[in-house]
Each structure stands twice: as structure tokens, then as C-alpha cells.
Amino acid sequence: MNGLAELVKSLGPARIAAMGAVALGLVGFFAYIMLRYNEVSEAPLYTSLGLEDSAAIVRELEAANIPFTLRQDGSAIFVPETEVTRLRMRFAEEGLPAGGGVGYEIFDKTDALGTTSFVQNVNALRALEGELARTIRAINRVEQARVHLVLPERQLFRQETQKPTASIVLKTRGVLETAQIRAIQHLVASAVNGLEPTRISIVDEAGRLLAEGTGDDTSATFLASSADERTLAFQRQVEDRVRDIVESVVGAGRARVKVAAELDFNRVSETRDLFDPNGQVVRSTQTREESSSSREAADGQVTAANQVPNAGPNAPAGDQPQSQDQSSVAEETINYEISKTTRTEVTEMGGVKRLSVAVVVDGRWQTGDDGVQTYVPRADDELQQIQALVRTAMGFDQNRGDQVEVVNLQFADGPPKVATDGAEAGLFDFSRQDLMRFAEMGVMLVLTILVLLFAVRPLIRRILSPEVVTEHREITAQITGPDGQPVTMVLNASGELVPAEPGQAPATPLLEAPTGNQARIEEAKAQGAAQMDQIRRVGNLVGENPNEAAIIIRTWLSEAA
Q: How far is the C-alpha of 457 from the C-alpha of 22, rounded, in Å?
């Protein structure tokens, strides 16, 4: 104990404080590093949750004693990275997250025996609305969705029935495209019996009307959106065809294709009746012949012969003269069928009125012996061949006024990158998490080096260096003055070299008288003479340059301290 007390006393309070500071700093720094690297890595379990879903998931996590962290005002839940997959499967089995609504699982928690038909119908409607909302949320850019269905009941003894309608409220990330809005309408209409896509209204969270839902198929908005979609789809189709055939020649990514299509959305219906006069065919023939004859007695006499029943006209009437009339009529009617052709033509919407295609291709890049790539434009013959391929791929029609332009220009992105070997690329194929880990380790390494250099090293040097006790000593020297007499010079506390006052004894003599045997005395005298000679020379220099000498001596004193 006495030795330890002597050691502590010899160190002094300054060294003990420095040692304590170094120890505390090192312990705190390395404790932080150990805690940081032993910290459990967290990953998002769910994001963009509603308050109801977040509360339900938190209850389940607390019941299972699983650590979690709430972020983004409770809409995001983070759990240990190793538990993410297992928890998602568990919550999916329990129907979480429900998205702020219920689906068909509502029937799993109710007793059908004690439930009225009205409650069952309401539950069925709620379940259908919840399932549709979940399906809509699966679409990109849709964050939340609410669906409201109006399904009128069929009334007895009524021929006209009211059609069902639907309204949807969406919370989106960004702006939905027209095709996505139409897709939501058709999705809901296909899931509800009798619901038409045009009877579905869609509103976003800002109150903007995305779809009217007026039920009019011929509305201007509906037709305009349909025309734009069909035009864009046709242009993309032609662009893909042309790009595929051009890139197969010039290389992938070395061609740019743009198509401008003008479509005809007028629907025309035309009916024609054509008659062929040379194609006559006898349909029916009708022939009628009539003949009559009559004979009369002379003078109009009436005799017993011509009054006898069934008496012919030639019945003898004695010698009396007679008159006779005969007539004949022949009639023929022929009915003909003439060939008739009925032709009905219906021209649907979307016919191509005009098509313009612009193609820009990059030139060739040749690598020289020095490894430098040089741009070489393509020949005109090659451009003509590419243009012929484009005409065929797009369906060029000169009567429509179609245009095709193929131009060779140097791309701004420079020469194409040379593909590297797959094995070499996989050697440095790090994921984003690996890169973040490496960056964190690099920062920790830099901080450790800085702490060692600028904090630990100075403290250790101060501990190990001995304490320097600075005491003032007057240094005197004898020099020869201008008159040849010795003059004693004194360096005072302010660092100035001044003559000594009369009677002032030197505090630190430059030479001390040697003691001992005679030989050592003689040797000391010789050394003293040599030193006196050097001091005399120094005194002469100091006498000539007193200011410079004072600066040099002050520098020596500061270095010694």
C-alpha cells in the first residue's frame, strides 16, 4: 500500500487526471462500437398502414413478446430482420393488415343461425366492398382505397330495374394514368353483377374527379380517353416492331424510334343493293287460251228442234237458213327474277389515316491499336436498307401519305460499354445492404484512427513525459569590451543581455574550478582556456550584434523548457 501511495504521489494530479480521461474515453468509444455491431438489424414489416391495422399488429407483437419500432407516426412498423418473413406469413393467416376494412372473413366470426337476412345482406355487401378495396390497393401508385356499392333490389311486378352503381375514393402516390383509371373501372364492374364500367365514379384524396360515372358511353370524356389510349397503344406497337428489327442490325440500345399515328375514329355503316340485268331467271310462266262459237236461226225463228234439251247447234231445223259466230283468245304471262346483291360495310373506329416514323441510329465505334474507340458514320447504302426494313415493319402506304425518316447521328452517351465476364462481375456483385455495411465499417475505422491520433496519443504522451519544472537562472558571461577590459554580461528574466551591476555575483558560473589531483587540474585548465577562447569569440559577436544574440539565447531557453 505504501508503494502504491508513493506511486500515486509521484505521478501527480495532472497525470492521474489524464490517465482517467484516457481510460474513460477508450471505454466509452469501444463500448459504443460493441453495442453498435451487436445491435439487431431491423427491417420494415409493413408500411403505409392505417391506424386500425397498426393497432391490431402492435397488439399481436406485444402478445408474442417480439421487439418492434414504430415510425412515420405509427404507419410503419419495423421488426428484427430475421423475423420479417415469419411474421408476415403469420399475420396473413390472421387476415392482417385488413386495410381499414373487412373482407369475406366477416362470415368466419358470425353465427348464421341467429342472424337475420338483412344482416347477412349487409355483411355480404361489406365483404364485397372490402375485397374490392384490397384488390385495388394492389395496383401501383394506389396507397388506400374505399369502395361503395349501390346494389338495388329487384322489385316484384316491375319491368324496369335500376342499374347498380359504384363510387371509389383513392389515395395515390403521384398521378394515376388514364389506363389505370379505366382498369379500376373494369375491375370493379367485372366483380359486380350488372355493373357497367361507365357507372363507376372515381375520386382521389384531393377531391379531383378521375372518372365521372354518368353511364353514358358516348360522353366526350369517355371517347376522348378511349381515343388517346388506342392511339398510344398503336404507336407503342409500331415502335416495338420497328425497334426490334432495327436493333437487330445496329445493336441493342443504338437506335431510337418514334411513331406519330393519326387514326380515324369515325364509325361508318354502308348498305348497297346491286342488280344484274343480265342475270334474268324465269321464275314462273302462266298461259291462258279462250275460244267460243255461237249459231243463230234465221229470222230469229224458234223451232221445236232448237228448243229440245241437249240439242246441238247442228240440229237440223228444216230448210230454214242459220248464222254462226266463232272467237279465240290466247294469253301468256312470264315472271322473271333479276339477280340482286346486298352489301353492308361497317368501318370500325381506329382506322389508320396517316403514319409517320422517325428512326435515329448510331454509327459504328472502331477500336484502334492503342485501345481508343473512334466513331465511324454508317454508309448511305446501309441506311437505305434500314429504311426499307422500317417501311415493311410499319406497313407503309404511300396513298395515305405515310412518311419514314432514317437518320444516322452520333449518340451523346458515347460508345457502347463492353460486356465483362460474368464471373468477374459476380466477384464484386454486392447488394445494397453489403455496401451500406462496408460504408459503416469504413466510417468506424476512420473514427477509430482519429480518436487514437488526436485524443489518445496526446494524452499518453502527456502521461509518459516527465514534469518540467521551469526555474529562472541568470546566465553570465565575461567578454572583452571595446577598451580591452573584461566586461561581465548577464541574461535577465526578460531575455535581454545586459552588463552586470557592480558587486553582482554570477548566479551560474560558466566555469567551475576543478578539484582533484594535479593532472586533472591541468587538463581542466586547458579545457577552460579553450572554452574561454570560444566565449571570448562569442562575446565579440554578441557585442557587435546584441539584438540577434538575445533572440538566439531566448530561442534556446524556450527549447529547453
A: 9
Point out which residues pair with 408 in neighbouring strands: 361
77: which strand partners?
Answer: 46, 70
CA distance 108 to 115: 13
Quote the Cα angle for 461-467-473, to 5°: 135
Per-residue H/E/C for 285-344: EEEEEEEEEEEEEHHHCCCCCCCCCCCCCCCCECECCEEEEEEEEEEEEEEEEEEEEEEE
Cis amide leading into 152 (omega within 30): no
Cell of 470: 521551469
Strands of 156-297, DSSP E? 165-172, 200-204, 209-211, 255-264, 268-297
Confidence of residue 389 (pLDDT cuts 50, 70, 90): very high
Beta bridge partners of 375: 365
DSSP letter (8 states) at residue 400: G
**CA–CA distance, 253 with 53 (Å, rounded to integer):** 46
DSSP string over 505-524: PPSB-S-----SSHHHHHHH
Residue 290 β-bridge partners: 329
Which residues have C-beta within 8 Å of that of residue 357, sequence separation ≥ 6?
Answer: 238, 242, 257, 258, 259, 260, 390, 394, 402, 403, 404, 405
Q: Which triple of cell numbers denotes residue 270? A: 354502308
| Cβ neighbour number for residue 466 with a 10 Å cutoff | 6
For the segment 126-135, the average pLDDT, to the nearest whole number, is 87
Q: Which long-range contacts (CB under 8 A, 24 or more apart) does 122-126 make?
A: 125/149, 125/151, 126/101, 126/102
- pLDDT, one tens digit per residue, over 261-310 is 988 877 778 888 877 777 777 888 888 888 887 766 555 555 655 566 66
Whole-model pTM: value is: 0.42
DSSP for 66-132 reads ---EEETTTTEEEEEGGGHHHHHHHHHHTT---TTS--GGGGGGS-STT--HHHHHHHHHHHHHHHH
Output DSSP code: residue 470.
-
Angle of helix 220-250 relative to helix 380-394, nearest 10 degrees? 140
Contacts with 458 (C-beta within 8 Å, 6 or more apart), sequence order: none
Alpha helices in 421-545 (DSSP H): 422-427, 432-451, 457-464, 518-544
Cα distances (angstroms) measured from residue 415 to each of 52, 321, 365, 378, 386: 55, 132, 6, 14, 21
